[in-house]
Design goal:
The chain is an alpha/beta fold. The protein has two domains: 182 residues, Rossmann fold; 44 residues, no CATH class. 29% of the residues lie in helices and 34% in strands. The N terminus is likely disordered.
Length: 252
């Protein structure tokens, strides 16, 4: 496993965008109800036990971690955004904790029974090395035979169904959204004006195919246990599934 530490710079788009209140306005439809449905289905699949220790990687404001904890589970959430973590910390208790942390770096060694990376919280990095580092860091955090869930967009259907432009009005803000597929990345430009100030944010998510993920998993010592295509945990079909959800186990 490669232990070289990556550099975090202000040029990384996700640092400013995920720390912005406008990100949460634009994606407010991704609410607690959706998170709870997915977690309930994962619970049915894994049969989580009260003794399980769970790591939520790139947890955002903690909606998945908070719900897991409400079911009595011991959860730690990590995220690069200080503002997201500041919000999530208001929900902390003796079995729920949050930390500012870069997922490319190892958080803890052989500590967790499960690690979750949900809602396409991957694919932001510019290089293959950084993708490998993030997967390896997640694997290192797991106990032997611990399990990792990666919930990623299905690149095949997203590219095929890409809507080039649209407008959304949310909380009185008119968002102009333009999308394109460029040099292996799904790029979304988000323009809007609020209180007389003009904003432009750009999302860049690498359209990582399943074969590339499998290379990351092999390098990290992870074995594929299941592959789902949506939050109801139906089987994955590359031509039609909404999501590409991997369930992996750390090899002994």
């Amino acid at each position: 496993m490669n232990k070289e530490k990556p550099k975090t710079t202000s040029k990384e788009w996700y640092g400013s965008w995920f720390d912005s209140p406008y990100y949460h306005i634009l994606y407010e439809h991704r609410d607690e109800k959706e998170a709870q449905i997915f977690i309930n289905n994962l619970n049915s699949f894994f049969d989580f036990k009260q003794s399980d220790y769970i790591l939520d990687i790139a947890c955002g404001k903690g909606r998945h971690a908070i719900y897991l904890n409400s079911r009595g589970l011991d959860v730690v959430g990590i995220d690069l955004s200080p503002k997201n973590i500041a919000h999530a910390k208001s929900y902390e208790n003796n079995k729920l904790h949050f930390h500012v942390h870069d997922m490319r770096q190892v958080f803890r060694h052989e500590t967790f029974d499960y690690a979750l990376n949900l809602f396409t919280s991957f694919g932001y990095f510019d290089t293959e090395l950084e993708n490998e580092q993030a997967i390896c860091a997640a694997a290192i955090a797991l106990k032997n035979q611990g399990q990792l869930v990666i919930d990623f967009l299905n690149p095949y259907t997203v590219i095929d169904q890409l809507v080039p432009s649209e407008r959304k009005t949310l909380r009185g803000i008119d968002f102009e959204i333009n999308r394109r597929y460029s040099q292996g990345f799904i790029v979304k430009e988000i323009k809007f004006t609020d209180k007389g100030r003009h904003y432009l944010f750009t999302e860049r998510v690498k359209a990582i195919r399943k074969v590339a993920f499998m290379r990351y998993f092999i390098k990290a010592g992870l074995k594929l246990k299941a592959n789902f295509g949506d939050y109801q945990l139906n089987p994955y079909h590359w031509q039609s599934s909404e999501r590409m959800i991997f369930v992996l186990e750390k090899a002994q």
